[in-house]
Every structure is written in structure tokens, then in C-alpha cells.
Input
Amino acid sequence: MSSLAQAIGAARPSVSQHLAKLRLAGLVNTRREGRRVLYRARDSHVRAVIAEVLFHADHEISGLPRHD
Output
């Protein structure tokens, strides 16, 4: 979570809460490696949604036109 929090510039508690909600919703799976918890999108459908959200965010940030 620390790596993710740093990468997106968010507070660790916020990231933790968001990841917990994604886990409870069944959208991500978790796996422990020592003290670390690794998160992975549950399946290809969830990964496709994430990719689309990131694509949209990139358009919003860069000012590229929307695809309506």
C-alpha cells in the first residue's frame, strides 16, 4: 500500500480504505507476502474497467477530446 500511496500521492489511510472497499466488493483478490499485501484485479472484466478508467483519466488530465 505504501508504494501505491506514494505513486498516486494519496495518504496511506485513504488508500487502505479504498482497497478494503474494493476487496469487500469482490473486485480485487489479495495475497500476503510477509508483511506486504498484494492486490490484484479479480478477473479480465475488472482489469478492462480499470484500463478504461485510466484511459478516461488520461484524457481528462491531458485535455484530449472525449470519445462520446
User: Anything to note?
Assistant: The chain has three helices and two strands. The longest strand covers residues 28-33. The chain has one domain: 2-62. The mean pLDDT is 90.
